[in-house]
């Protein structure tokens, strides 16, 4: 039976870095190490991840070097299923404005959802 595919929110990765033994750390472990499910990500989500974990306030909480954070980012990129596409493959949707900087490639106009074929 194929594994369930799951998209982990950036907050799960950040929380897993802060506390590997906490709930998010256990979710990370289940997907990436125990292979209970197949983690899925995208170029936009990977960009958001590096942006968030490199913020000074997050770095203080995570307590890792930039090199360790870059290694973590690379691990996620290489071990999650990477969906094809880039920012131009997104359609702006004004329903989730908190995600605008990520989904709109830095734009604060609107959120984004994948374009539907046709």
Written description of the protein model:
By secondary structure, the protein is of the alpha/beta class. It has two domains: 5-84, no CATH class; 86-118, no CATH class. It has helices at residues 10-18, 23-33, 43-53, 56-62, 66-79, 100-103; strands at 5-7, 38-41, 81-82, 90-93, 111-114. It is globular, with a radius of gyration of 15 Å.
Short description:
By secondary structure, this protein is α/β, with parallel strands linked by helices.
Topology:
Blueprint: E1 5-7, H1 10-18, H2 23-33, E2 38-41, H3 43-53, H4 56-62, H5 66-79, E3 81-82, E4 90-93, H6 100-103, E5 111-114
Parallel strand pairs: 1-2, 2-3
Antiparallel strand pairs: 4-5
- Proportion in β-strands: 5-15%
* Approximate helicity band: 40-55%
Total DSSP E strands: 5
Structural class: alpha/beta
Question: Mind telling me the C-alpha Rg?
Answer: 15 Å
In round numbers, the mean pLDDT is: 80
């Amino acid at each position: 039976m194929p594994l369930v595919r799951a998209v982990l929110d950036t907050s799960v990765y950040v929380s897993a870095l802060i506390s590997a033994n906490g709930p998010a750390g256990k979710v990370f472990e289940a997907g990436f190490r125990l292979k209970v499910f197949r983690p899925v990500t995208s170029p936009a989500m990977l960009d958001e991840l590096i942006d968030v974990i490199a913020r000074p306030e997050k770095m203080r909480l995570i307590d890792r070097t930039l090199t360790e954070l870059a290694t973590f980012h690379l691990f996620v990129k290489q071990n999650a299923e990477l969906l094809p596409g880039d920012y131009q493959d997104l359609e702006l949707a004004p329903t989730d404005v908190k995600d605008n900087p990520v989904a709109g490639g830095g734009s604060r106009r609107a959120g984004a959802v994948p374009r539907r074929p046709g």
